[in-house]
Design brief:
Blueprint (H helix, E strand, L loop, with lengths): L15 H14 L14 H4 L6 H19 L12 H11 L5 H7 L4 H9 L2
């Protein structure tokens, strides 16, 4: 049975700092596959809509919940296709958030030195 204790719950009010921390915890504690990683037992036609298995179904919906909360905080718009490195960077800078460089580097799939250089770019 799928359970990630860090999913967003209805009615929760989070500050920008809490949202960033919660998103990273959710991502670090997910056991399911990412939406774009097809598994050998996934039906290809159903996978396109993330309907092929419980893992893809939950990942897609939980990820969308976080996207909606970022939109709610004006950190992104509905026109944005998803989280990207620049969005996370702008969110951190705009709200003057605290973060662990090692943790964010891992999430963004960068080395620590690459991440530090990225954060210093204009």
């Amino acid at each position: 049975m799928h359970q990630n204790p860090f999913v967003l719950k209805p009615g929760e009010k989070l500050t920008p700092q809490e949202l960033l921390d919660r998103f990273l915890l959710w991502d670090e504690n997910r056991t399911e596959t990412r939406a774009w990683e097809i598994k050998k037992d996934c039906d290809v036609d159903l996978w396109k809509g993330h309907l092929c298995c419980e893992d893809h179904f939950h990942y897609s919906h939980e990820h969308d919940d976080f996207l909606r909360y970022f939109v709610h905080l004006d950190a992104m718009s509905y026109g944005d296709v998803g989280f990207d490195n620049d969005l996370i960077k702008r969110f951190i800078i705009r709200f003057k958030l605290k973060y662990d460089p090692d943790r964010l580097a891992k999430y963004l799939n960068k080395t620590l030195s690459e991440f530090c250089a990225f954060m210093m770019e204009d």
